[in-house]
Automatic annotation (TrEMBL):
Keywords: ATP-binding, DNA damage, DNA repair, DNA-binding, Hydrolase, Metal-binding, Nucleotide-binding, Stress response, Zinc, Zinc-finger. This is DNA repair protein RadA. Residues 68-217 form the RecA family profile domain. A motif (RadA KNRFG motif) lies at residues 254-258. Belongs to the RecA family. RadA subfamily. GO terms for biological process: recombinational repair. One of its GO terms (molecular function) is zinc ion binding. DNA-dependent ATPase involved in processing of recombination intermediates, plays a role in repairing DNA breaks. Stimulates the branch migration of RecA-mediated strand transfer reactions, allowing the 3' invading strand to extend heteroduplex DNA faster. Binds ssDNA in the presence of ADP but not other nucleotides, has ATPase activity that is stimulated by ssDNA and various branched DNA structures, but inhibited by SSB. Does not have RecA's homology-searching function. Plays a role in repairing double-strand DNA breaks, probably involving stabilizing or processing branched DNA or blocked replication forks. ATP binds at G97, E98, P99, G100, V101, G102, K103, S104. CDD domains: RadA_SMS_N. It comes from Crystallibacter crystallopoietes. GO terms for cellular component: cytosol.
Amino acid sequence: MSSKTARAKAPAYRCAECGWSTVKWVGRCGECQAWGSVEEAGAVVSRTTPAAAVAKPAQRIADVDASTAAFQATGIGELDRVLGGGLVPGAVILLAGEPGVGKSTLLLDVAARVAGLARDVLYITGEESAAQVKLRAERISAVADSLYLTAESDLGIALGQIEKTDPSLLIVDSVQTLSSSAVEGSAGGVTQVREVAASLINAAKSRNMTTILVGHVTKDGSIAGPRLLEHLVDVVCQFEGDRHSRLRLLRAIKNRYGPTDEVGCFDLTEEGIEGLADPSGLFMSTAAEPVSGTCITVTLEGRRPLLAEVQALLAETSNAQPRRATSGLDSSRVAMMMAVLQRRAAMSLHKDDSYVATVGGVKLTEPATDLATALAIASAKSNKPLPKGLIAFGEVGLAGEVRPVPGIGRRIQEAERLGFTHAVVPSSHGGPGQIPKGFRVKEVGTVAEALDLLFGAGTASPS
């Protein structure tokens, strides 16, 4: 046998995540750096697939009946908002989130609501016993006659349960706990997750059955298992929340049937999980009078404007290295705001410990919160409260300029709806858009201009 033939028949190894191949097995992919994703792919042989007989000829797109894929509301408005209108028959939804964030509680509530519409629902749990799920269902009042429950970790038996029940909605909690005896590997491994997902997706499409798969996440917050899983499903949702806060956010990362810029807000309590149509009140303090070091801003979560409060506290220190503590805000952006104030607004902050936080545990990552952060720090330094009824938003650059942000008009309208009367916004060529009657807006081009407006001599409020 020639050396050329030997190389052609040599075993190859391929990464299940990105497809990178190598002639030797390695523990870590040389392309995407994923651990444990390189598997033997067999001999490198070029094959072609012959054409097969067509059982169902292709249809003209005008003759396709789209009514079979119409949205079906779940009864949970915030979930329907994120999904684009509700559940689509035959769609496969992947819901991922940190442990304890409330994924199982939300899906059990969804299962009970759908079952209450006289539609059969099958809930397959691989992490808990049926009795444990029943206890949670009784606690959140999620018991329905058409809701079927089974605790199973074998894929073959789970598919048999689907055949016997023939549900309109299938919930699998979670896809990493099911395993197939037809393939090698332990439950949760790359090979097993790929096989389980492919089998469940095939069952969903062939039966026109809506399927929701719960997915685990890794340490860095990404969905565990092969990246192929996210490509195969129709919708990928991320359930987020801080364990010290009741607020939960549901985001659609991928959605073949609706937008990916919608966010659903939920309140997790002992009685279950409820949608929050107006969650802004959770992120503001209840002080009757303005307090120094606080500023209200409007952030966009998807297309939804939310009001949040930024609080700052400065305390003079004798330490050579002042302390910089943040909560709910990006620490690097807060440090940048302090540097801008010190350099561009001549504000001495190098001898002060700083503590900057948000109210209610909300995380503000949008650059539009820069101006509110800077004003809160300036208010704390001067010990002068900002005017009552004031909001501020805008991105701040290192040169001290205040840059325009998207959705200025939408933010102003939300603030006016909640009783605010003034706004400090970035200067924009197109203007802030339609301003509600009686609402006063002041455009600023730099941080120094905003400080002169709010803290200058004789300035009480923007006009």
